Target: YkgJ family cysteine cluster protein
Amino acid sequence: MQNILNNLPKLAAEKHKENKTFFTKLKKKPPKQLDYVMQELHEEEFQRTDCLQCANCCKTTGPLFTDKDIARISKHFRLKPQQFVEQFLRVDEDNDYVLQSVPCTFLGEDNYCSIYEVRPKACREFPHTDRKKFQQISNLTLKNVAICPAAYNIVKALKKRMSK
Ligand code: SF4
Ligand code: SF4
Model:
């Protein structure tokens, strides 16, 4: 897995232009069955991918924390939301709450998330490859393929599927 992760930014950079063109076309004319296709490709990929061998999302980028996330996680720690924010979060350039540092504080040596049951929504949904109207998050996906080997493979499989 480490080899794959080391090579991923280079692979993603090489495919960036091709992926960008592909998503521009996809956005213009999304196929009717796209939601269904994404669901299928996502499930197929995650049957093969063991996130516990990877955890690259938790190591290199962090989620956004919504107010609901903050309320839920601070309750878990028996902290006041403001105390949780002060201890773990900062406000980024888009005015969102994000982790003060990466790798995520809640990631264990064994790649397990210590707050798994109450983790942020963005962590639960990453890399967002099974979401509806997938074509609408193409800019995010173009970034995620350089972080997440599963997202890279799903986009590759989608391109292949759409070329048939
Ligand atoms: S979601 Fe992607 S980056 Fe995160 S652990 Fe799984 S394969 Fe790795
Ligand atoms: S909260 Fe858990 S799932 Fe989310 S980035 Fe941190 S370790 Fe990963």
